[in-house]
Design brief:
The chain is α/β, with parallel strands linked by helices and 253 residues long. The chain contains 8 helices and 7 strands, in the order βαβαβαβαβαβαααβ.
Length: 253
């Protein structure tokens, strides 16, 4: 049986999730990533993790489809037993997301439901489904956003979902404390990834604007965030619980 710690990261084939996966692996932790459709990219991340000396695997998962979580849990359990010889993993990173830019007046019910399913409902019920697979003493790390602290037009629905995640995380910390499981969330500011590409492409002056309202003078990049998530998976982060950690470079201070 493997004695390595294991992290499960949803949406780990690109962007913040990929960076977090590599940073976590650099801490000596094995990693399982999920992907929705980009299997080749996910397999490449697995190779990069293995090149760092850690075991890794990728599983397909659409975090917006709650009905599929039972089957996913079974696949995960089989993978854990066959590859690691154990029934559990240690760290759950709820990272998966979808494009969030949608002005309030133009947000359709379908847009709202898609955001809700991925950014709140999916996180809630995936975490619930995996409770029996997360080891006692483990960690849950949810992703929020700086947009719950400051308001930027175009993100009303998305920020509302993330606000719900912030409350949910406190309840996880409270209700799972008896098992020694800590729950925290990381709240990035505006990060330049393919996730925000639509917003940057449609607003040519966005880079300059973000730089002007950020104390450190630029938008964030995935490498600014992944290390924070990785730290929360280490023994040095064991006493942090129920906390919102904003990593925005000092936006709107």
């Amino acid at each position: 049986m493997s004695t390595n710690k294991i992290a499960l990261i949803t949406g780990g084939s690109r962007g913040l999730g990929k960076n977090a996966a590599l940073k976590i692996a650099s801490k000596g932790i094995d990693v399982i990533i999920t992907y929705r459709s980009k299997q080749e990219e996910a397999e490449e991340v697995v190779k990069q993790i293995e090149a760092l000396g850690q075991n890794a695997a990728a599983l397909q998962l659409d975090t917006g489809k709650v009905a599929s979580f039972g089957e996913f849990q079974e696949q995960l359990s089989q993978l854990l037993q066959s590859k690691w010889g154990r029934p559990s993993f240690d760290f759950l990173v709820n990272n998966a997301g979808i494009d969030a830019a949608s002005p309030f007046a133009q947000t359709t019910e379908e847009d709202f439901d898609n955001l809700f399913n991925v950014h709140f409902k999916g996180v809630y019920f995936l975490t619930q489904k995996l409770l029996g697979t997360i080891a006692d003493g483990g960690r849950i790390i949810n992703l929020s956003t700086g947009l719950t602290r400051f308001a930027t037009p175009g993100y009303a629905a998305y920020a509302s979902m993330k606000g719900a995640i912030e409350v949910f995380t406190k309840y996880l910390a409270k209700e799972l404390g008896s098992r020694g499981i800590a729950a925290n969330l990381v709240a990035p500011g505006i990060i330049e990834t393919d996730f925000t590409k639509k917003a940057f492409d449609s607003h040519p002056d966005m880079h300059q604007f973000i730089s002007s309202i950020t104390s450190l003078g630029r938008p964030g990049v995935p490498d600014d965030i992944g290390g924070i998530i990785a730290f929360l998976c280490t023994d040095d982060g064991r006493w942090i619980n129920a906390q919102r950690i904003e990593a925005s470079g000092g936006m709107f201070l």
